[in-house]
Specification:
The protein is α+β, with helices and mostly antiparallel strands and 159 residues long. The protein has 2 domains: 66 residues, 2-Layer Sandwich (Alpha-Beta Plaits), CATH 3.30.70.120; 61 residues, no CATH class. Strands 2-3-1-4 form a 4-stranded antiparallel β-sheet, covered by helices on one side. The two termini are 17 Å apart.
Length: 159
Amino acid sequence: MLIVSTFEHTLQLELALAELEQIGISKESLLVVAMDPFDKTTTSPAHQAEDLKVRGFEVGMAVATGVGVIGASIGFQFQWGPIVWGLIYALAGFLIGYGAVWLIRVRKGGRPATRSPRRPQPELAVIVHCSESRSEEVRHILWHYRAISVGIAAEPASS
């Protein structure tokens, strides 16, 4: 039976492997594979264009909200009233925000304006080959040491 699990590269993984060896799972029955993180350099131009549109929309809506509030506030002094002037200012604010993102991208030489999220820890896949009678014990150990996921695969049939 094959048990496949994923871990972040932490001390928990090392402790899980040590405990598996202590219960009699040999090193030859363990396989640990480092997974490559997503490579942002392989994104296609379609993804970059979509990112620009999403980023531009987000910034445009934020600026539209702020400018729309200001427009509604000063709209009390104009003939059409605060609602109409708030909408006019919101539209202008959206165009300013979206245009600013577009101009920044053009000045950066076409690179997409992306967020920089917290870099996740690299993941590792752990594959354990064991008998069916030990599978529950092995799964329990993997879950105990905070595996991200655990799956079971039946032994492949030899031909």
